[in-house]
Amino acid sequence: MSEAVIHRRTVTVINEQGLHFRPCQLIALAAQQHQSSVILSRGATRADAKSLLELLTLAAEQGTNLELEVAGPDAIDALNEVTELFSCGFQSPPRSV
Amino acid sequence: MKLCDFVVPGAIVPELPAGNKESAIRAMVASLQKAGSIKAEDEENIVAAILKREELGSTGIGRGVAVPHTKHGSTDKLIAAIALAKEGVDFASLDGEPVYIIFLLVSPPDRPGDHLRGLENISRHLRNDHFCKFLRQSKTSEDIWELLTEADNNEI
Predict the structure, then answer these.
(1) CATH superfamily of this structure's domain A2-87
(2) Quick one: what percent of chain B has pLDDT higher than 70?
(3) Which residues on A lie below 8 Å from B69 (Cβ)?
(4) What does the radius of gyration of chain A's CA atoms come to, in whole angstroms?
């Protein structure tokens, strides 16, 4: 039952340059570490957060609110990790690949 | 924003000479200079900025595509070059595969929104398998420009 639960949170792009290539790369790398599905949406545009190509289609500028939806066995960890990236403006050191 | 709004027609390289990531980037920046989109005196500086950006992490995004880019004060609008590498170029992409299609972007530092919309536009079309396939099959600059126009008009 718990795996069917979708955890939702609104995240805000706070960094000046918006969701450009490097932030998208950091989100994708973080999402790929988890089994859970991780979706970021901007209005009708939904992006699989494990796909850099899909994240880039969000074109989210500074101040944009995005809906984060996570579902799966490690959903809370994934939710917190992706949220933290937004909170710190993607300033955390790049994780090793 | 459409592809034809920021891709420079004179900066389409339908067949890059065999080489590496740096030679590909140099050839593409040179094409922007020859097309009159950047000044000759800025060329080396732009190449260096793009290579420095690549050191932070490859812009190879999988599917045989790379999007090297920089923000640079020498341009007052978003501009892009396109190149095809029939032999493939090692771009140190995350998936380990060579790159056959390269979009190179140069955007003004004070217009982050335009840069994002350029990346969005390119990414959206690259998700289309037909677009990637037809682009790789293109032989001339004119073929590529026609394909970009069709993509802009959602005809692919």
Answers:
(1) HPr-like (3.30.1340.10)
(2) 100
(3) 21
(4) 12
